[in-house]
Amino acid sequence: MAEARGRDTWGHTSAVLAMLANCNRDPKKSRAFSPADFNPYAGRCRRGIPITAGNIDVLRKVFVPADGAGAAR
After folding, report:
1. CA pair distance 71, 50, nearest whole angstrom
2. Per-domain residue ranges for the chain?
3. What is d(CA 73, CA 71) in angstroms, rounded to the nearest whole number?
4. Segment (H or E) for 57
5. pTM over 0.85
């Protein structure tokens, strides 16, 4: 019940914060803010790099020395 009240309160607060930020931003320099930008309960979409065999090979080439030095600590 307490979490629901917090979510509701942050919904109102984040709407006010977004309106305030949009009133004071330069439209030529930044995008418009949404209430989700200020709401800690809003779900964020995660945009990451998918892990593939090619990505792992690149990381090995960059971070693992070819001579094997430093592998054992």
Report:
1. 26
2. 1-44
3. 7
4. helix 53-63
5. no
Token duo for residue 16: 């006010």
Higher pLDDT, 59 or 70: 59
Query: Exposure pattern of 37-51 as b/e (b: 16+ CB <10 Å)?
Result: ebbeeeeeeeeeeee
- 48's tokens: 């990451």
- Cα Rg for the chain, rounded, in angstroms? 22
- What does 7-31 look like in DSSP terms, one character per residue? HHHHHHHHHHHHHHHHHSS-TTTSP
Q: What digits encode the pLDDT tens for the residues 28-64?
A: 998 999 999 999 888 766 677 788 888 888 888 888 8
Round to whole Å and give the CA distance between 50 and 67: 28
Helix (H, G, I), strand (E, B) or coil at 72: coil
